[in-house]
Design goal:
alpha+beta; 3 helices; Nucleoside Triphosphate Pyrophosphohydrolase; 3-stranded antiparallel sheet; single chain; globular
Length: 209
Amino acid sequence: MPPSGDLPGDPAPEPLADRPMSWPVVSSTDLHRDEWVVALREDVITRPGHPEEFGRLSLEHPGAVIVLAVDEEERVMCLRQYRHTSGHEFVELPAGLRDAGDEPPVETAKRELQEEVELEASDWRLLLSTFPSAGITDEVHEIFLARGLTHAPRGDFAMEHEEAEMVRFWVPMTDLLEAVLDGRVRQGPLAQAVLAYAVLKQRGTLDAR
């Protein structure tokens, strides 16, 4: 095998970071749009400086928050939830759509934690902000770490549809990490949150401010 310096490719850009960009849009057609927050459209675009036109599907999505709630015993609050599209009942974390207008992500996360698992937290930290499938949707996941947990009743919020069948339970962080690494637990945001937590824990930076 040749040394890596002989392999094709350009040097990494400086700084190493994603960058906003927009190619020319020739036309845009709604394929599905209703009163819900998610819509599907088809755009016809071109490469900058090139006349060739080609289509791309775009799923418009307001984004979501996910909460890794960890208690003093290093246990994680998890849920089991059925997902029709994927045909699985997944082990998940408390989460929800950012469908409340300009509400800050952390406030949405606080509300979802209380509504779904009846917890509130005194310590909040953004772990990750990710695009789960950048080729098809503009959805962004804001993944939070929540600590300092106490009971907080959900009040008159009513669980409906799949949420009405959710089961909540505590899992030791070490067990959850092993389940992710073994491929037994595969829901993306949960895996990202747990792996990020494990790395920060190893670095000793979880309590850094």
